[in-house]
Amino acid sequence: MPMYVVGHKIPDSDSICGAIALAYLKNQIDEPAVATRLGDVSPETAFILDRFGFEAPALKESYAGEEVYIVDHSELTQAPDDISDATIVGIVDHHKLGDLTTSTPLECWIRPVGCSNTVIKMMYDFYQVEIPANIAGIMLCAILSDTVIFKSPTCTTADIRCVEALAEIAGIEDFKALGMEMFKVKSAVDGTPARDLVMRDFKDFNMNDNLVGIGQLEVTDLSVFDNIKADLEADIAKLKEEGNRHSVILLLTDIMKEGSEILVVSDDASIIEKAYGKSLTDGKVWLDGVLSRKKQVVPPLQDAFA
């Protein structure tokens, strides 16, 4: 039986591309693996897969009795619902260590870099496995996405060097231009229902026994939200009540201005204000220089809840 390689719920490009890249690597070292996903692919991910000739991994939501290799997280809230009935054989990630636990030893590749695909590139180097051009392409796109084309504070020298090496393998001369194409796809929000936008890149976190949902929309110009911001605010309020969450935060990130406006609904907004040292006005505030949910949004919020 093969292991299943899967990312988190509401998968982003790192999660999907990482599952494909890691499954290929595992198969090359005689460890049978199948890439799967826990949700629909985003428009950006669809663009990447189409650009390099891939189909999306199969949708698989139940893993009871299976061997599972987790990609791009180690959080129980982001894992398959029946993960406690599966055997976790490995984790590759670049986030904080979450609350997934195992009853057997496992392989862990966790590094403080900007993207899981950077870690997977390190795994290819370790096992001395050649990366096909099309897999190199999706890996570098995932890194460009997660690091906001190297603008994010999570970006490291390792991420940049991996992109440069992967671009050479994939035959891409101007990878930054490719990155901007991806973000233009992300910025196309016209005609998309508010719920689809809110859930496009959304993660739940357990913060001192409080469920907190944090979504992020990265665009090249915040003006694309001018006519729909009220709809987004109304939808995150509904989402909070539907999921019995303490708080829901939606980051509207402008990658050109390098900052985020956050929209907030909360049982106690003072916790959010304490986390970021800013007062909310009508449930929102601009956070200059904030691009990364992983490094700049989650850690101070967890500290505030603690």
What does it look like?
- The protein is α/β, with parallel strands linked by helices.
- It folds into two domains: 3-184, Alpha-Beta Complex (inorganic pyrophosphatase (n-terminal core)); 194-305, DHHA2 domain (Diaminopimelate Epimerase, Chain A, domain 1), CATH 3.10.310.
- It has helices at 13-28, 43-51, 116-127, 133-146, 157-170, 175-187, 194-198, 229-242, 269-276, 293-305; strands at residues 3-6, 33-37, 58-59, 67-71, 87-93, 107-110, 202-207, 210-219, 247-254, 259-266, 284-288.
- The chain has a six-stranded parallel beta sheet.
- Helix 4 (133-146) crosses helix 6 (175-187).
- It is globular and about 55 Å long.
- This is inorganic diphosphatase.
- Keywords: Hydrolase, Manganese, Metal-binding.
- GO terms for molecular function: inorganic diphosphate phosphatase activity; metal ion binding.
- InterPro entries: DDH_dom, DHH_sf, DHHA2, DHHA2_dom_sf.
- It is an enzyme of class 3 (hydrolase).
What is Rg? 19 Å
CATH superfamily of the largest domain: inorganic pyrophosphatase (n-terminal core)
Q: What's the pLDDT, averaged over the residues?
A: 96
Q: Kindly identify the CATH topology of the largest domain.
A: inorganic pyrophosphatase (n-terminal core)
Main beta-sheet annotation: 6 strands, parallel
Helical proportion, percent range: 25-40%
Q: How would you write the strand order of the largest sheet?
A: 3-2-1-4-5-6
The fraction of residues in strands falls at 15-25%
Task: Indicate the overall shape.
Answer: globular
Tally of extended strands?
Answer: 11
* C-alpha termini separation: 42 Å
The SS-based structural class is alpha/beta
Compute the number of structural domains: 2
Identify the CATH class of the largest domain: Alpha Beta
CATH architecture annotation name of the largest domain: Alpha-Beta Complex
How many helical stretches?
A: 10
